Amino acid sequence: xxxxxxxxxxxxxxxxxxxFVLKLDPAMFTASVGALGxxxxxxxxxxxxxxxxxxxxxxxxxxxxxxILGSLSFWIGTPYTDTFLFPFVATVISLYLIYxxxxxxxxxxxxVVMVFSAFVGSLFKPTxxxxxxxxxxxxxxxxxxxxxxxxxxxxxxxxxxxxATLIYGVASPLLKKHLHVNPNPEMAFSYHHYLMMGxxxxxxxxxxxxxxxxxxxxxxxxxRQAKDLDVALRRLQAMNADSAIHxxxxxxxxxxxxxxxxxGHEGKGFPEVPSERNLPNSLKKLYYMxxxxxxxxxxxxxxxxxxxxxxxxxxxxxxxxxxxxVFLRLSFIGLTCFLMLFETxxxxxxxxLPIFVVIFAVSLDRIVLQMNAVLVKRGIVLSxxxxxx
Length: 389
What we know:
Layout: H1 5-22, H2 26-52, H3 56-71, H4 81-99, H5 106-121, H6 129-144, H7 150-178, H8 191-198, H9 209-216, H10 221-237, H11 241-256, H12 263-266, H13 278-287, H14 296-315, H15 325-341, H16 353-377
Helix pairs in contact: 1-2, 2-3, 2-4, 3-16, 4-5, 4-16, 5-7, 6-7, 6-15, 8-10, 14-16, 15-16
């Protein structure tokens, strides 16, 4: 029913077939591929940060935070859209950092791969295309500042055209056909459904089962879209200024306030422990939240997430237009607007963790540069410090 599940269904079908060939358990194999993808995404992100900043301490710190929040998260063992999208977002962000530090013709190759990666990732979640929009606006603003990136803009638009044609017009239909994934388009939920759910006053725009029942109860696609849109508009029109501010404030906190990305709520989906041996039970104590007691790992995640949000609060509001700030700012604003408009969950930020890790790295780099500048003014020279790397 959910459009972004089509790409997931194709991938899962392929992985299950591979697991049969390799004589492996399908569930374990798909979870392992998801875990490998997230870990690979963390490494790609570290490489991108290294190419942009070049300070080993910052690169390692960024990689460790990405590993704890991403690679050791509950969702890494849940082969779903969020897990499989993670490496594509990390690739797009890293390639942007490399793009800003490269010269032609490497620049154009990086842009093509960057846009193509985003469109492949959109098969799991269309939200990733926010990064492509941010890239286009960033280049247009740089062109307006006479930075001479007209060829870059043309390359991006050509890449968008080719990528959309190859992914949506060629690859996706072929894979669905050969892997026998045949969704019924009449039963698929459209953006109207997510717009309706995003305006739900009871759940503050988060997932709501009653909204799913409303959409699922209308078999005709046109009638369902009209009903969803009508409900969404009536909900928005019912808000006054005060209630709208309260609604979106709560929705924003729901989205950004949980550094575990929803472990406490959605992580209850696995009530059965497959083994009573010591290791599974010990791991369960780290992840699960029982008797309303926060888990050890959940507390660590929340602390690191607060650090990332603090860095975002320090970097993004600044008026600087150099380096990577504009792209990061546009990506953050686009992602937030998307989630505020449609259905939201804390889990939806898991895939976009690389954005916040890069914001952390850039913020930390600027703090180090400012500290070094102060020390130089005082006549203190650091040999072998981070500023010399």
